[in-house]
Structure formats: structure tokens, C-alpha cells
Amino acid sequence: MSKRRGSDGEHIGVILARLLQRRKVFDEGKTVPLAKKISEGSIIQKWPEIVGKGISSHTQPLRVKGKVLFVGVDSSIWANELSLLKMQIIGDINKAISENMIGDIYFKIMDINRGD
Known about the structure:
It is a single chain. This protein is α+β, with helices and mostly antiparallel strands. Helix content is 46%, strand content 23%. It has 5 helices and 5 strands, in the order αββααββααβ. The chain has a 3-stranded mixed β-sheet, with helices on one face. Strands 1-2 form a two-stranded antiparallel ribbon. β3 and β4 form a beta hairpin. α2 packs across α5.
């Protein structure tokens, strides 16, 4: 099976990636590439897979602002433990989304509503 190509011979994936980079969406008073918003959504969706069931049961990814991921944590004990694992988690996130998007994580103690 051959890979699909556009009329000028480029792979469809290359064309789509360029389109997603060019297309902008409005976010917190500014426009950002649609590709960035899709990556942010991937982090939130893949969170349990990235950090594992144990950590994900005590945390909730909230949003990404710049290169900072904001994560709700259900106790100060977990926030402290996760701060020690922060660099590993950042590496795991960036690997999972195949780009160097997250540079820091801010942990915020809050009630985590799991909706179970």
C-alpha cells in the first residue's frame, strides 16, 4: 500500500502538520496554533497512561499555559512526592506527545473529582 501524497508529491501527514501549525485558535486572549491545542488535549487524555494508575488516581491535569502544565493534586503529601518526580514526568509527557512542549509542572492542592 503506497502512502498518500498530495498533488505536489508531499505526504498527506506533512501537509496536515503544516496546516495545523498555520491554523490558529483563540486561547486566553491570544491566538495559538491548533497543533498546540491538540497536543495539550493529548496530554490530558493520555495522563493516566503517562503517569500510571497510582499517580493519576490522586491527580488531575488542568491546563497548559506556555510550557507549564498545571496539575491538581489531592494532598500535600502527593504534591511533595510528585515534585521529586517532576523531571521524570516532564520527560514522559514530552515523549508521549513526541515533542518538547512541557518544561515545568505546577502542582496545586485541590479536591480531585474523579466522577467514578
